[in-house]
Amino acid sequence: MASPAADDQGSPTPARRERPSRLIDVGVAVLLLVADAVIVVVAGLLLFAVGLGTAPSPDSSRRGHSRDTPVLAWLVIWGVPVVAAVGAFVYARLRMPATAVVQGLFTVVCVLLAVAWTRMLLS
């Protein structure tokens, strides 16, 4: 008797991967939702704190900010949305719709935060 794997080798169409169960999909989505929420809150608090710390005081003679932002800062600011987008794509390819939606929403929030960080650093 031939094994199922041996039967698939001669077929013209490739075997479709079995999608993870809905329970696993929802469980991973909930875990990522909690982790993403922590990341967004920390990034928002940092944006607020750094924004307050770099705001010129009315009595200071300093005009503007330094344009010497390290390349690593730009990689972190714009790298996080890129990694989140890749994650959303991977979860969609793994056929995990709930997790893909959570990561897609996280990508949108990361892009908005990256735009805010960029505006703050360039102002």
Q: Your description of this structure?
A:
The chain has 123 residues and is mostly helical. The chain contains 4 helices and no strands. Helix 3 packs antiparallel against helix 4.
Short description:
72% of the residues lie in helices and 0% in strands.
SSE layout and pairings?
Layout: H1 4-9, H2 22-54, H3 71-93, H4 97-122
What features would you highlight for this structure?
123 residues; mainly alpha; elongated
Query: Which percent band covers the strand fraction?
Result: under 5%
Largest sheet: none
Distance between the termini: 72 Å
Taking all Cα atoms into account, the compactness measure Rg is 22 Å
